[in-house]
Predict the structure.
Amino acid sequence: MEEQKIVPRHVGIIMDGNGRWAKLRGKPRSYGHKKGADVIDEVVTECFERGAHVVSLYAFSTENWVRPKEEVDSIFGLLGILIDKKLAKLIKREVKLIISGDISPLPESLRKKCLNAVKKSGKFNGNVLNVALNYGSRAEITRAVNLALESGKTKITEEDISAGLYTAGLPDIDLVIRTSGEMRLSNFFLWQCAYAEFYFTDVLWPDFRAEELGKAFDWYSHRKRRFGGV
Ligand code: IPE
Ligand code: IPE
Ligand code: MG
């Protein structure tokens, strides 16, 4: 009998390298974002097909606002188009969409699309797609602490913080994948990654397809996780 492969329950993906991918081709950065948006569905679908239950995608960080307005607008525009194009598929597959981050400063039309998608998929309790949008982990943890304080707590536990995170109720991240050769977390789910395995690849995000995802999952299946034990 073929050996059962160990699969991450929760995969976090830092989709990086769109700008460099475009630059290599003499194109504007927004073109890289467009190509990057085009591969998201394939990679997320592959994660679920390989047995992951939660996929967390880094779409826009709290630090990304410093980019030229034109680029920020193009990213938001693409995210809106992606929701329009893929919401029906998410619902058909009973995937629950959640958004991690403060969406209040986003353009009204994108904010509405996000709220609608979250509402329409809210009843599902199978696989979860968690999109980190205007997300920063330090802001998230600070918010969780404040929520606990506001509820009257004077001594805050780890459980209180976990319960106040956008990912409350979800398992911790098992595997983080970051494309484009950068080996850093860039404020991505610091709390939830406490015991994650890290897979870094030089492949730029628009070139990261199902086959590349397979390599990351294969690598993960050979990791020996100890969680402090021997
Ligand atoms: C990742 O690609 C997408 C976002 C941060 C929104 P980048 O835009 O960071 O691409 P590089 O890192 O500049 O190549
Ligand atoms: C992280 O990528 C954020 C997203 C992928 C959305 P960045 O490109 O913003 O990260 P740094 O600036 O290289 O750390
Ligand atoms: Mg980058």
The chain has a mean pLDDT of 97. The longest strand covers residues 54-61.
